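Two proteins were folded this term; both appear here.
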Amino acid sequence: MPVNPARFSYLRPSLVAVSCALLAFPATAQRVAPDSVPKIGSAERAAIVRAISADIEEIYVFPELAVRMVAHLKERLDSGGYERFDDLFAFTAELTSDLRSISHDRHLGVLPLPPGGVGMAGGAGPIGGADSAEGQRRRRERLRRANYGFERLEILEGNVGYLDLRQFADASIAGPTAIAAMNFLAGTDAVIVDLRQNGGGSPSMIQLLSSYFFEEPVHLNSFYLRREDRTDQFWSHAHVEGPRLVQTPLYILTSGYSFSAAEEFSYNMRHLERATLVGETTGGGAHPSEMLDYPELGVHLSVPFGRAVNPITGTNWEGTGVEPHVRVPAAQALATAHRKALEEIAAGAEEERRRELAWTIEGLGAEAVELAAPELAAYVGTYGPRNVRVEGGRLVYQRQAGPIFALVPVGDDRFHLANDNAFRIRFERDSGGRVVTLVGRYQDGREEPSPRTGG
């Protein structure tokens, strides 16, 4: 089947070109339930192998691997190796497995088209292809409902900015949202970008977000394109809307799910020594891909047409993933990065700010512990104007007629107040182990002891 340029025009190598091309193939292609996939016979299997083989041989980034893959598919077809696959779902899964057994390329794969014959590249059907006005409208609407991947934006304790980014949507569509997010983070003392649930997207968004972290344009990445036999460079922008965060420490959270464009952003920043990566090694996909539909055959092909070339390493993360600086399970990455960010901020801060940050760091490291009823009873009593008692099976604190706070035990006779981070308590014991003093601790470093007066 000849390649139809209209079907992957937005995937061509340019600012917009590699957009969907840097998404993980399993995350972007539309899955189809096995019971809705039609049965196929020998003629259909042969037609599919011929069609995808022609395009793989013409397009795939490594010609020698393309020849090997095509030969492997033909040998299996001719020898009857595919005869037992009589439904499209099972057959395309087997084709993908065969292709990857040689290429080890997670951007390369075959899937059934969903009902209506419209896949990632567009194709036939009543809703129109991706390049039709209706196809573009539907795609933009899906992106809008997902807020262009900007899932969560907030300021964590200690003035650390946090961005949970689920995809790198094309900057031509998502630029205003990205700019608003970066301006929201402009006053923070450190930034954490969470890519643990990010499957990829567009280099144009990588360029835009990266530009806020550099004073001058820097060479971020390049893509070698097989058919054009040329290398296109991607640089950060000379101009951004709003303040830059050039001196702001940057932490990037990664997981095994982080893939493709999420990996490029991480890889670029790691080798430019601009960020600290925390979490797990990423998925390992570095090849921009074209998305081809074959409506008459009912299948969709994702085939890489280029490869990333980092200007510093001269290579990329294909098959290996991006290694974090700080390796921790993905579930622990945010807490670890938050603590490290606070420690980095504190290292260059004045004394008063260091005390505030030490208080915050202490709070992050505190985990609630369970205390049995006799252990709770040991703290019950009156300490000058302060009263500690048990209500509803938990310890509570009240100063004179003030509000009542639940006390959260964190070990070593220390307690935090629920819903009040500016005040904490520790108790002191006498040589016999009896609790004799309540020490009120304040965020500014002050401590106020109150000896036990009753109870």
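Next, the second protein.
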Amino acid sequence: MWHQALQEGHLPAADRDWGDPAASVSLRTVIAELRLCELTQSSAAMARQVLGVMLWHLDRLIDRPSSESRQTAIERMAQAFRAEWDTQRQDWEQVLALFKSLGDLANLRWDSLHGRLQSRGWREAQRIGRLLDTLPELARFIDAIGRASRRDDLPPAADPRPRIDAPRPPVAVAITTELLDQPSEVRGVKRSGQLSRMLPSEAAMIRHPVLRRLWRARFAEQQLLTYEDAALLTQWQLRPDAHALAAAPEAPLGQGPLLVCLDTSGSMRGAPENVAKACVLQALRTGHASGRACRLLTFGGAGELLEQELALTPEGLDHLLAVMDQSFDGGTDVQTPLERAIALVQDGAYALADILIVSDGEFGVTPATLASLRRSKKALGLRVHGVLIGDRETIGLLEVCDQLHWVRAWRRYATQAGQAYADGFSPVHSRSLTAMYFPNAIRRDPPTEDN
């Protein structure tokens, strides 16, 4: 009865006192003050943990010293129970904050979870979780992925159109328009050809006898470092049909399994790596919240493919922490994960799965793989979604993906301020792309009076 009541989110009847009313009242008071029933609700693992710790302290009452009164021993027991659960509640709140839902944590027992909370991967997962809170658009994009129907036995939605015989007054609706590149709050730095938003470091090159050629080349390429800002314009309009729009049902979130292809190449190090790990964490949250299977395919160079199941189980948590603690490095071979994902979709367990590619887009797809993917899309209804963490769209990514979410401001998510890539790493294979594509833009000879 205690176990059932804790899972229901409340304490059992007062007469369920284990034959010891005084000790039971002390423990019930501590449980109520610490609000442990909020943690045990709908969680058999947490209910067992609270019940087990409580019984262990009750069993210790018989070992009190002969000089100590029983009432004093009960008070000491209640204090020890409170001290233990003060620590455990904080740890469990970390788990809830990371995964955003207690959900079905029955497979995560405290004895198996406690050691993982001290690992470096868990600290990295907490950092990525805080970063993910600043990316609501990315979370909504991943939540909407999926093509399986929610329920087949649900009744049809009510007609949201207003009745003609029941007119309603118009409602003022706020319409917000984003004015890009208008003077407002500075969001970051980007590359463009806007002279009015140019950084002082770029303007300093104009009068330099040599660097002015570099400035001209960057201006021609639209690669000058400029401020990135945007203004929000809010206008209020009277909408007679606003009540009808408000009554319309929300679009259902995606359903069905998820196949996440994660690019772990060297070009993803630093800030792109942080955003990519946030995508993995959100995929786990999405799959766990709706009971959907989620399989992770991490890929790098040729032959570097690791397939793991993401779930809130001891093994699935180990897989997540391993990804969080991983440093991205290597090449980019997208052929193998795409072919593996297509094979999984053709299997029964993942027949209704959609593919999510998380990459900076620096890859290409062979015609054979692209043809196989298109056949699967046509025959099985497969859809491919992409999260682009980079500055530009690439042909390879556009050919593969049906829907794309572009994280343009990826530099602001760097671990260290002002350092987009980790350890000063740069994915560019040449230090001077300007010299490669504009050979005469930068001259090697020293400047003269005429030049």
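Residues 171-249 form one domain. Residues 70-99 form the longest helix (30 residues). These notes refer to the second protein only.
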